[in-house]
Automatic annotation (TrEMBL):
Record's keyword annotation contains Magnesium: no
Metal-binding recorded as keyword: yes
Name this polypeptide is given: Molybdopterin guanine dinucleotide-containing S/N-oxide reductase
GO terms for cellular component: outer membrane-bounded periplasmic space
Family the UniProt entry places it in: Belongs to the prokaryotic molybdopterin-containing oxidoreductase family.
Natural source organism: Segniliparus rugosus (strain ATCC BAA-974 / DSM 45345 / CCUG 50838 / CIP 108380 / JCM 13579 / CDC 945)
Gene3D superfamilies, sorted: 2.40.40.20, 3.40.50.740, Dimethylsulfoxide Reductase, domain 2 (3.40.228.10), Dimethylsulfoxide Reductase, domain 3 (3.90.55.10)
One GO molecular-function entry: electron transfer activity
Domain Molybdopterin dinucleotide-binding residues, every copy: 622-731
InterPro entries the UniProt entry points to: Asp_de-COase-like_dom_sf, CT_DMSOR/BSOR/TMAOR, Molybdopterin_N, MoPterin_dinucl-bd_dom, Mopterin_OxRdtase, Prok_Mopterin_Oxidored
Domain Molybdopterin oxidoreductase intervals: 49-503
Entry keywords, A to Z: Metal-binding, Molybdenum, Oxidoreductase
Obligatory cofactor(s): Mo-bis(molybdopterin guanine dinucleotide)
CDD domains registered for this protein in UniProt: MopB_CT_DMSOR-BSOR-TMAOR, MopB_DMSOR-BSOR-TMAOR
Length: 767
């Protein structure tokens, strides 16, 4: 029998056999189903599953406390009753002795789709009922943009949710200049689920119509259509190119002064910087040529074209996942403002086009069903990528968006639905940070490196083992996610785990409100339906829960099309932006007032640290792009068929230019050691002319596999790039993740290849 289900990367039907997914059938109306669906079969009973609750032996025998055994110790299988009792007692101790602030419950991560069993919502609701926790703010995805764009546009995630839609771009855009390209691999996924994937066909349509796409990127693979133009540049140099384009527009009087006057503030300050009046350095195309490697006449030609055509400037999220990442989206927005096409159909600015499937699909004019997380009475928080700072520097401070945050002394760390040994930079440092707390708790279906570094591991079900309802921004289907298999071994839904714990701590009723999982689904759906019937005429025909469940999905009426900032353009007086000036802030008095040396009041060029023109490049001469994987979502289902199919000699593939391969005497299929002064890893070579010279590309997501689990500096034999990346943050403004770029050296690996142990469970001790 087929069950309806959904993941972040698609809607599909599931066929099961022997307690596992045997086959998935993509949603028939999806023109471009994701290859990531191939990772699902076999995932329920894979050997890397956590079979039941487990406790680290040292923690069980000696009690809570800092430990250098995390990641190296054996585990002991316990019953759910024991796990609940031990953890309830430890939570009570930490809260009584150190306060709720001492719990780090930021728990960043994508988990699985599904509004009710969403692991972060579950852990946050639970910890809120327990009196709160130190939280995390912003994301790894857009950590820099989320802080700077509210100052510039007064918008937060509306920048993506209200992005110009693909159907408008396909029909109206004449020139799409995409900094960071439009990598179709990324449009597979959407947080919370996806059904139809329009990016590929839309890019095709644009080119069929005679429109042009210029993909500015160090990788050819970022072209959304083979007919698009690849403009290769030195990684990290985009802001210099944007400034040079802006300078060219001014030089040729091609900028729209009327638009800048009416819709923006701060043009004069920026213009002084651009022309060199404030620092003696005009940001000309000649200036940008040696920085970016793009010939000056190319830049001048492109600027003239941009002014002559209906032009959309796309800035990918990757550009802000770097040192000074605040600058690229801000400079891109300013460039679009100079062209004066902001708010016109198919013109203007878009941030993250194709980064997820949802960017480019109009947003629903209403909220999705939700599982309330409650209120966190504890005020302490960190910008999310500062987790190593938090754990290693208690009592010290961190600048953030005009505030000075005090880093609390964390005693208990709780992760549910995220994998910091996937997402955090500088894993050798994270491993040291994970030694400090008294207790680390992880809920996960799999023995990820994070679970192996925990003290208490709570075995979770996967979404296929439970019923749920989807619900995602910018997604036209609401899907009944129907349980396809029985829970594996002794795994439990996170909801049940937290409900039992809440019981042991005396707040079960507050956590569950007396509902079981099924009753929550009905409650969430029916509350949502009642709100929709009240506020949206088009949704009056919504079926009740039973009918929705039987149908498997319902279609949501999304707007036909969407044009970013069109309302503001039509009437800036009655529909101002929610910036202090009500207009686009080319110069932000607020940011300027913070007085940060690494983020001024207007977008500017700052030299990054990890790049080819810096002094580190003498030692580590290749620029590694650690981007999102084509074959999986982050670290999820790395053992699945699609992901495994891409491995080279069992290692994650690293792509390098033929000249760089020849210089090192390596060829496709060889295993290389990739290293810098932070760490080293093994990866499998793919020689690729579509990679710029002196650039290498190694995706995130290979499960961390230290050769010696007791040594924090141990080589990763599998190819997780975060062994090498720097955990320096974007700037004092946003303190965002900078993991996209890192300098490395590569050499042929001559030793004996270590076996891949990443998917093996840890050793167990039997009592
Ligand atoms: N170097 C570098 N690093 C990066 C990036 C980069 O560009 N370069 N990108 C960053 C970005 S943008 C992101 S978003 C992060 C992603 O980082 P994460 O979101 O942390 O990565 P995932 O692999 O999606 O981790 C999700 C975890 O949730 C678990 N899980 C799934 N379903 C459930 C469930 O129902 N219950 C529980 N308890 N657990 C569940 C999965 O098994 C998995 O371990 O990585 C960041 N890291
Ligand atoms: N298949 C798949 N899709 C995903 C994800 C996944 O894990 N797998 N993760 C999702 C998530 S959480 C997020 S946040 C988004 C992220 O979306 P993005 O941040 O856009 O994704 P990346 O793949 O990291 O980067 C996109 C491209 O930017 C280019 N690039 C890197 N550095 C530079 C530079 O300095 N200059 C220029 N011009 N280009 C550069 C790289 O060639 C890279 O392929 O992707 C989402 N989509
Ligand atoms: Mo992300």
């Amino acid at each position: 029998m087929r069950r309806q289900h959904l993941s972040h990367w698609g809607t599909f039907q599931v066929e099961t056999a022997n307690g596992d997914v045997a086959r998935v059938h993509p949603y028939p109306l999806d023109p471009d189903p994701s290859p990531l669906l191939g990772n699902i079969p076999g995932s329920i009973t894979h050997r890397s599953r956590v079979r039941g609750p487990a406790v680290r032996r040292g923690w069980l025998e000696h009690g809570p406390g800092p430990s250098d055994q995390r990641g190296a110790d054996e585990f002991v299988r316990v019953t759910w009753a024991e796990a609940t009792e031990l953890l309830a007692a430890e939570l009570r101790r930490v809260i009584d002795e150190h306060g709720n602030e001492a719990i780090y419950g930021g728990s960043y991560g994508w988990a699985s789709a599904g509004r009710f069993h969403h692991a972060q919502s579950q852990v946050h609701r639970f910890l809120n009922c327990a009196g709160g926790y130190t939280a995390s703010r912003n994301t790894y995805s857009t950590g820099a943009a989320e802080v700077v764009m509210p100052h510039v546009l007064g918008l937060d995630d509306e920048v993506y949710r209200e992005a110009t839609s693909w159907n408008v771009i396909a029909e109206r855009t004449e020139l799409l200049v995409a900094f960071g390209g439009v990598a179709l691999k990324n449009s597979s996924v959407n947080p919370g689920g996806s059904s139809v994937h329009p990016a590929r066909q839309s890019a095709q349509r644009l080119v069929d119509r005679g429109g042009r796409i210029v993909s500015v990127s160090p990788l050819r693979a970022d072209l959304p259509d083979p007919r698009a133009r690849w403009l290769s540049l030195v990684p990290g140099s985009d802001v210099a190119v944007m400034l040079a384009l802006a300078h060219t527009l001014v030089e040729h009087e091609l900028h729209d002064t009327a638009f800048l006057e009416r819709y923006c503030v701060g043009w004069p300050q920026f213009e002084r910087y651009l022309l060199g009046a404030s620092d003696g350095l005009p940001k000309t195309a000649r200036w940008a040529e040696p920085i970016s490697g793009i010939p000056a006449d190319e830049i001048v030609g492109l600027a003239k074209d941009m002014a002559a055509k209906r032009t959309l400037i796309a800035v990918s999220w990757s550009l802000q996942r770097t040192k000074h990442g605040e600058q690229a989206p801000w400079a891109g927005m300013v460039l679009a403002a100079m062209l004066g096409q902001v708010g016109l159909p198919g013109g203007g600015f878009v941030h993250g086009l194709g980064a997820t499937n949802g960017v480019g699909i109009p947003k629903a004019p209403f909220a999705m069903p939700r599982f309330p997380q409650g209120r966190n009475p504890t005020r302490s928080f960190i910008p999310v990528a500062a987790v190593s700072e938090l754990l290693l520097r208690p009592g010290e401070t961190l600048d953030y968006n005009g505030e000075r945050l005090l880093l609390p002394d964390i005693r208990l760390v709780w992760w549910a639905g995220g994998n910091p040994f996937h997402h955090q930079q500088n894993l050798p440092r994270l491993r040291r940070a994970f030694r400090r707390p008294d207790t680390v708790v992880v809920n996960d279906p799999y023995w990820t490196a994070t679970a192996k570094h925990a003290d208490i591991v709570l075995a979770s079900t996967t979404s296929y083992e439970r019923d749920d309802i989807s619900g995602a921004n910018n997604e036209p289907l609401l899907v009944a996610m129907q349980q396809a298999a029985e829970p594996f071994a002794d795994a439990r839904d996170d909801y049940q785990t937290f409900a039992e714990l809440a019981g042991a701590l005396g707040f079960r009723e507050a956590f569950t409100e007396g509902r079981d999982a099924r009753q929550w689904l009905v409650h969430m759906y029916e509350t949502w339906r009642a709100e929709r019937v009240r506020d949206t005429a088009g949704l009056r025909g919504l079926p009740d829960f039973e009918e929705f469940w039987a149908r498997g999905h319902i279609e949501l009426p999304l707007p036909e099309e969407q044009n970013f900032l069109s309302g503001f353009r039509e009437d800036p007086e009655s529909r101002p932006l929610s910036t202090p000036s009500g207009r686009i802030e080319i110069f932000s008095t607020t940011i300027d007032s913070f007085g940060y040396s690494d983020c001024a009041g207007h977008p500017a060029w700052y030299e990054p640290e990890e790049w080819l023109h810096g002094c580190r490049a003498e030692q580590f001469p290749l620029h590694l792009i650690a981007n999102q994987p084509r074959t999986r979502l982050h670290s999820q289902l790395d053992h699945g068929a699609t992901s495994q199919g891409s491995k080279v000699n069992g290692r994650e593939p690293i792509r390098i230019h033929p000249a760089d391969a020849a210089a090192r005497g390596v060829a496709t299929g060889d295993v290389v050691r990739v290293f810098n002064d932070r760490g080293s890893l093994l990866a499998g070579v793919v020689v690729d002319e579509g990679v710029r010279e002196r650039v290498a590309q190694l995706s995130t997501g290979a499960w961390f596999d230290p050769a010696d689990p007791a040594d924090p500096d141990s080589m990763c034999g599998h190819g997780n790039p975060n062994v090498l990346t720097s955990d320096a943050l974007s700037s004092s403004l946003a303190q965002g993740c900078t993991g996209q770029h890192v300098l490395v050296q590569i050499e042929r690996f001559c030793g004996e290849l270590p076996p891949i142990r990443a998917y093996d469970p840890p050793a167990f001790h039997t009592r």
